[in-house]
Amino acid sequence: MQKAASCVTASVLRPSKNGYEVSKEPHLLTFADDPVELAGRQDFALSVRHEYRIMRGEGLWGRWKVRTAGYYYELQDDSDDEVISYHWHPESRSPLAFPHMHIGVGSGVTVAGLREPHYETPRMALESFLLMLIKDFGVQPKRDDWGNVLRRGHAQYEQERTWQYHPTEREAQPGDKPSSW
Amino acid sequence: MNAAMLQQRAIQRDGHVEEFSPEEGWDLLDRQARRYLKMDGEEFIARWDAGEFDDPDDRLRHGPEVMRVATLLPLVR
After folding, report:
1. Residue A170 within any structural domain of the chain
2. pTM of this prediction?
3. Is there a domain that residue A179 lies in?
4. Between A154 and which of A15, A91, A127, B37 could a Cys-Cys bridge form, CB atoms 3.0 to 4.6 Å apart?
5. Domain for residue A89, yes or no?
6. With an 8 Å Cβ cutoff, is A66 touching chain B?
7. How far apart are CA B14 and CA B60, in angstroms?
């Protein structure tokens, strides 16, 4: 993940204390100077929090694995307003357990009702979010091999992740209104 | 080797990126609580533990600010 982050920032994703150890509670990866500046877009800043656990795979010789426990990737503007963010927080107090995105005040959207919902998404890899910043938001990459770095990182993520979430799998929550899905 | 790579190297020891110290973790949470919620870290944690922010991602009641700070709690717990 740090290699992916290096495509857009010189800041370093650092683990919380004891973040290389097995623990019941999830560890956190984030920037010490969060939110961090982005080249090419001085009006934007990036915030990353990534929760994880270190676990051993099944069986006597189970392979050690880092398992994602949640994520929070946000693009902010220079007024600290949220532009767009992707979340997954199944272990938080929020009752929402599905991956989702938000459209924030910083996006300039003024249509009523568009900034409150939690828009369901598939699980989002950090590499995908950073690629979006480069391709769609004008952020300048900080390394020449950014394409390969993000592509390989994403491929590794696809190969090793242990679950997938598709929006059609959302469970109805109490109070949900009938929808087209 | 560019400046970005040099900075990254400076925070690595023995192949590991340096962990947050308890002081650094507290500093980040406190700074962000002050910046986004206009309260210090101690007040945020007291109110969080008292159950005030029962849904930190409820956009009908507040913006993204509570989630921004709440997601840093693993740094101080």
Report:
1. no
2. 0.86
3. no
4. A127
5. yes
6. no
7. 46
Q: Yes or no: say if A154 and A122 are a contact pair by the CB < 8 Å rule.
A: no
* Cα B48 from Cα B2, distance rounded (Å): 42
In a domain, B36, yes or no: yes
Residues in chain A within 8 Å Cβ distance of B2: 142-143
Query: What are B32-74's pLDDT values in tens digits?
Result: 999 999 999 999 999 999 999 989 999 888 889 999 999 999 9
Q: How near does any CA of chain B get to the CA of A116, in Å? A: 5
Contact B20 A32 (CB under 8 A): yes
Out of B19, B53, B56, name the one closest to residue A19 (CB): B19
Split into its structural domains, chain B has a count of: 1
Segments forming the whole domain that contains residue B43: 20-75
Whole domain around residue A112: which residue ranges? 2-162
Contacts of A47 in chain B (CB under 8 A): 68
* Alpha carbons A111 and A96: distance in angstroms, whole number: 24
pLDDT, mean over chain B: 86
Helix (H) or strand (E) run with residue A141 in it: none
- The verdict on a CB contact (< 8 Å) between B74 and A18 is no
